[in-house]
Amino acid sequence: MIAITDMTALELSRALEAREISSTEITRAYLDRIDVKNGEIGAYLTVTYDEALKSASLSDSRRARGEALSAMDGVPVGIKDNICTKGVATTCASLMLKDYVPPYSATVIEKLESSGAVILGKLNMDEFAMGSSTENSALGKTRNPVDTSRVPGGSSGGSAAAVAARMAPYALGSDTGGSVRQPASFCGVVGLKPTYGRVSRYGVVAFASSLDQIGPITRDVRDCAAALQLISGFDGRDSVCSREEPPDFSGCLGLGIEGMKIALPEQFLVEAVAPDVRSSVLHAAEICEKLGARVDVVSMPSLENALPTYFIISSAEASSNLARFDGIGYGSSAPGIDSVDELYRKTRSMYFGPEVKRRIMLGTFVLSSGYYDAYYKKAVRVRTLIMREFNSFFERYDIVMTPTTPDTAWRFGERKSPMAVYLGDVCTVPANIAGIPAISIPCGADAGGLPIGLQLFAKAYNECGLLRAACALEDEFGGSGE
Amino acid sequence: MSRIYEAVIGLEVHIELKTGTKIFCACPTDFGAEPNTQCCPVCAGLPGTLPMLNEKVVEYAVKAGLATNCEIARYARFDRKNYFYPDLPKAYQISQYDMPLCERGHILIATGDGEKRIGITRIHIEEDAAKLVHDDRYGTLIDLNRAGIPLIEVVSEPDMRSAAEAVAYLKKLRSIVLYAGISDAKMNEGSMRCDVNISVRVAGEDKLGTRIEIKNLNSFVSVQRAVEYEFRRQVAALEAGESLIQETRRFEPSTGRTFSMRVKEDADDYRYFPEPDIPPIILDNAAIKRISASIPPLPDERRRTYMEKFGLSAYHSEQLVLERSVSDFFDAAAALTEHRQILASFILSEVLRYMGEGDAISVSPAQIAAIADMLGSSRINGSGAKKLLGALWDTEGDPAELISALDLEQLSDRAALAELAKRTIAQHPNMVRDYKIGKQSALKALMGRAMSISGGKANPEILRELIVLELEGQ
Fold first, then answer.
1. Which among A102, A205, A323 is the nearest to B84, CB-wise?
2. In a 3-state reduction of DSSP, which class is residue B311?
3. Does the distance separating the beta carbons of B90 and A323 come in below 8 Å?
4. How does DSSP classify residue B280?
């Protein structure tokens, strides 16, 4: 018999509905698995044992009464530690919020709870979601379950590692420039960044407000559709959250991709992309054609400007969003201070890590008077150009296909230069800049056996088309990245 | 002083909008609540919270713009003003920078030389900061009740030339927002606060002098005194050959002087950028028309009505419209009597004296209209009307009944008054002597005695005529 922790979220849901298993059994299995594996993998910063078992027991009672809140009632989930959970520490993997316990829950947490989800705990990440390897966590090291000498990617490294290591059937991450898709790619699982506005941002600790979006990390595309269903929809607490009624995402699956038009930008088939990655993507393109889709190699010149645009806009917004951590209202506060200016300086010097400081300084610089026009204002203009280019491509194509990352997971400490790390985000940031949905699915492995991710973009609010194409390819690749 | 100087004054006025709930969350905005009882994670700027714009704030700000003859933007947006201060929970204030909601307006003020037009540069929306409370035992404490209260900032052109004009502008602005119904505009409670920019120059010169900003003035008197002091200080400095520096100063009401707070040598860099959490404000003509239709008649319009339709003096008209409650009261009473000039004069001189500042008028328009009728038809004189008002205050009494009950009816019978005149003159031969040698005050004294004998009831015009007749006849 298949182990509980090897089942997908939907398999668990079906087993629960068939009364073959209880939520308490599932939850215990995951908590046991976490006990065994977390020492090695380091995915969780907080495990909410008692709360999880209590939620599971309540779920079982509901099901026994025939009052299940949703198909996913009783299925556990892990949460990235920048999503606020009332009464449970939400640290952003930072010394600044090491002991911070929010008095309210994020909208996505409320949505999960109201569908009966069992929260297992909070997952490690790069500090304040800034990084691509989870090495910037101030609170612990997360290892890639595929090869523990390597990073799990980031910033949602804990979320991807937890799903890959069977320590959660699925997890939530946040994606500002690729932070869901890139670790999913490195760990061999599925990661989705929904359309900006599809999922409420209320309660996710802001990194870059115009780019942040919460997304699921799952074992396969079907779970991804189901998880997206739970968290998406209008929220009166986030002004940019869409009023558009979410479609039935699972209902979009299984229709194949015959007749779909797919664009393959040549900008992401260059030498900077590792040969194994490139050939996997080209192989995926061949499969698409075999399945009846049309694939064109195209040129999207504006993509070459996406990375600098991203770093200017995201850092600018971060410098403002993170200014509130001043040692006064909440969070860590430097001791032995006698002036407020000293409090600000010391608190922020002591409790922010180097990458966070680097982004705050960069963001402060690009917004400064005298530099604003040359950097921030120009970046906003380029952003418009990138959006326009995507829009014009989506008039002719259903999907734009790229690698998720130019390379596979690297060894700890291997990438010392921030620039080298930043360059790895080149394929993922365009989706955040344009506000469009994007998914990463496993599409093979490199010579060293490390997972390679295939990334698909669709136009805004077309998660259906995106998931449909991803599901068709996943079926062809042979399942959940094993 | 060898040269004549003039002040160049512009005002920045912050006005709290009485929208009932805060600008970005549903917390109430009542004044005077226990500290930190009207706040939530959004007001506290907790990590992960987001602002949701209260649409009433935009509506009220548009009203302010329309009421001050501004152009209303069809597209406006919010920006973040970034700076660190303990009263600013997010370390940025959500405000409007280069795309404010209202621009290029004006209001009219009354001056000694007639009406003067004061330009409004812009009106923008922003959130108020928390309040810092200094406590001897605990040090500085933060009260978040004020954080997120909606404000408009009204920036004037540097069009004022004296303290009197600055105060007139401020009073007029206050009166307009009261009429528009968008704020309590109570300076003593901080729902209207004023910063003054002032420079001086030799009269007639075009070039502006060095600008000094005086922060946070919280009464009309403070504005008056601060401007007067600052004008003298700056003129004295220039006369002494000193040069002024651009700085921010604070006014100390106990000494009546201003003190330097900080020098604006290196201008603050607030690193404004568009607020990504709030979509732009988009207004169409229909929305602006709808808001415009909801604004009641404003003071200038009412003032014109008073002068043109009721024949009131410019002074009375201006006085009546200063407070909306007074003007509304006058309008209600004026509909019930033909004696509008008497009504205006009686309200301004007697009714307003009866109520303290901020109190309500505790008589009905119908009662006051009845008094105006009695005054107009000489049934009662001024002194009787005053007594009647006192008796009516806080009661539902009928003036017509009270006038007999209190025996206030005016005595206009010529024979009785002639008798009274004779008696008074006979009793005061020394006053008569004074009158004969030309002392005009003697007539007044005799009138006083006679009125007093009549218990204040005599018709003063007839009585005076009869006393003079009697004196001249002797």
1. A323
2. coil
3. yes
4. P
Write out pLDDT tens, residues A233-273: 999 999 999 998 999 999 999 999 999 999 999 999 888 89
The chain A residue lying nearest B90, using CA atoms, is A324
Q: Which of A328, A366, A369 has the most B C-beta neighbours within 10 Å, making it the best mutation to test the interface with B?
A: A328
Please spell the DSSP secondary structure of A171-226, one letter per residue: EEEEESSSTTHHHHHHHTSEEEEPPTTTB--TTBPPSSTTT-EEEEEESSHHHHHH
Q: Consecutive sets of 10 residues in chain B, 474 residues long: mean pLDDT of each? A: 86 97 96 94 97 97 97 97 96 97 95 91 98 90 96 98 95 94 92 96 90 93 96 94 91 92 74 97 96 92 92 89 89 93 90 72 88 86 82 80 78 85 88 85 88 85 87 78
A392 is catalytic: no
Q: Which two structure tokens, joined as six digits, stand for A315? A: 């850092």
- CATH architecture of the domain with range A4-252: Alpha-Beta Complex (3.90)
Question: Rounded to a whole number, what is the distance in Å from the CA of A403 to chain B's nearest CA?
Answer: 29
Quick count: other Cβ atoms within 10 Å of Cβ A151?
A: 28
C-beta atoms of A364 and B271 within 8 A: yes
Cα-based angle B190, B193, B198 (whole degrees, multiple of 5)? 155
Yes or no, beta carbons of B50 and A326 under 8 Å apart: no
CA-based torsion, A60, A64, A65, A71: positive or negative = positive
- Separation of alpha carbons A367 and A313, rounded Å: 10
Using the beta-carbon criterion (under 8 Å), do A203 and B90 form an inter-chain contact? no
Q: Could you tell me if B363 and B347 are in contact, meaning their C-beta atoms sit under 8 angstroms apart?
A: no
CA dist., res. B363 & res. B369, Å (int): 10
| Pair A309, A383: CB distance under 8 Å | yes
Residue A459: active-site member: no
ipTM of the shown complex: 0.96
Cα(A307)–Cα(A423) distance, integer angstroms? 8
Q: Per-domain residue ranges for chain B?
A: 5-287, 297-405, 414-473
| Residue of chain B whose alpha carbon sits nearest to that of A338 | B139
Half-sphere exposure of A391 (CA within 13 A, CB side): 9
CA atoms within 13 A on the CB side of A463: 32
Put simply, the answer to whether B44 touches A240 (Cβ < 8 Å) is: no
What residue type is B265 in one-letter code? E
Cβ contact (<8 Å) for B271 and A368? yes
Q: What is the CA radius of gyration of chain A?
A: 21
Residues 184-243 of B with CB under 8 A from A: none
Show residues of chain A in contact with B273, CB under 8 Å.
Answer: 316-317, 320, 367, 372, 376
What span, in angstroms and rounded, lies between the C-alpha atoms of A61 and A178?
39
State which residue of chain B sits closest to A104, comparing Cα positions.
Answer: B41
Domain B414-473 has CATH 2.30.30.280: no
Measuring CA to CA, which residue among A408, A101, A467, A438 is closest to residue A303? A438
User: Which residues of chain A lie closer than 8 angstroms to B53, CB-CB?
Assistant: 239
Smallest Cα–Cα separation from A224: which of A205, A244, A243, A252? A252
Quote the CA–CA distance of A415 and A424 in Å, as a whole number.
10
Question: How far, in Å, CA of B362 to CA of B392, rounded?
Answer: 9
Say how far apart CA B95 and CA B78 lie, in whole Å. 6
> Which residues does A293 contact at the CB level (< 8 Å), separation at least 6?
A257, A258, A259, A260, A261, A262, A469
Domain boundaries in chain A?
4-252
Catalytic residue among A179, A200, A242, A280: A179
Distance CA B249, CA B254 (A): 15
Report chain B residues whose CB lies below 8 A from the CB of A316: 273
- Within an 8 Å CB–CB cutoff, is residue A376 touching chain B? yes
Q: Does A333 touch chain B (CB under 8 A)?
A: no
Q: Is A179 a catalytic residue?
A: yes
